[in-house]
Amino acid sequence: MKFDSSTGCIDILPGLSLGRGMTRKDVMASSADWEEWDFFDNAAIALRSIIRLPNKNVSPRTMLVVYVRPEDQLIAFWNISLGNVSNGPQKRPEGKYKNLMRSWFKDMFDTQLPCSGEWGHIDASYDPWNQYAGVVCNYRERFIDEHDWNVYKSQNKIK
After folding, report:
1. pLDDT digits (tens, 9 = 90+) for 95-107
2. Less crowded by CB within 10 Å, the N or C end of the chain?
3. What is the pTM of this model?
4. β-bridge mates for residue 35, sequence order
């Protein structure tokens, strides 16, 4: 299990890697069992897989969601979460669940979050409405243009 901070590529399990430049077809060809997940205009815009990571200290249900358009487009972003371990109320943006996800990612992938590069940006994120935390990797392909990417970098204090 490895995250390459110079390219934004992640090796999650043997046969399951994600990276900038991968398409929907590439994701579907991996060793994970994928299901269509999120829908827009009756088309699946995400694929989800429940995976088991080789670490006894985490939830056995690790959910990986990859956002990629139905046509054979490039991956926009992906999100990985630890089942029920990362769910619940958090009072501050930098609260216990977000910190738990950063710590987990450091332990599993030997990478300190947040991390960014020419490829995009990765960090732990917390959704207060759904009371859910995960690690989200946004590739440059997610952004409409350079201006959109620069706005995102400014909002997230990325140099």
Report:
1. 888 998 999 999 9
2. C
3. 0.89
4. 48
